[in-house]
Design brief:
Layout (H helix, E strand, L loop, with lengths): L1 H20 L7 H22 L2 H23 L4 H8 L5 H12 L3 H45 L1
Helix pairs in contact: 1-2, 1-4, 2-3, 2-4, 3-4, 3-6, 5-6
Length: 153
Amino acid sequence: MMHLFTQFLLALFATLGFAVIFRVPARHIPACVVAGALGWITYLISDYSMGSPVMGCFFGACMVGLCSWIAARLFKEAMTIFVIPGILCLVPGAKIFYTMEALLKNDIENMAQIGVQTLMMAGAIAMGLLVIGAIIKVFWALIHKTVTIKDKF
């Protein structure tokens, strides 16, 4: 449990750094750092329980997308203000480095293995954001359609 708390704090500070680099307005920084930290914790828990960093990236990206959507609605701002700093903790930068290292060492088999996993993790991040966005739009449309049908009667 203490390990997760430490990881949560480290993800908060990492996301804070990215938010400062990308010049996120000061009033939006708390929502950004919470989205990033929750996304990282979701990644860790999913990776541990499923044994797959690809699924961890998918569920972590879903969490960042959901938190970003909620923050965007609360602050009446674009979702990208919250998504970009929040998602950067999930980017498989070390895996990209190890892929290039294996390529430079002419270890083609290892390069292919790590490279495929890296591409799958990057795709899982994109799919997580896409799926959450689609689900939210469907629920939002159903809620509004239900309200308008109810108002007509």
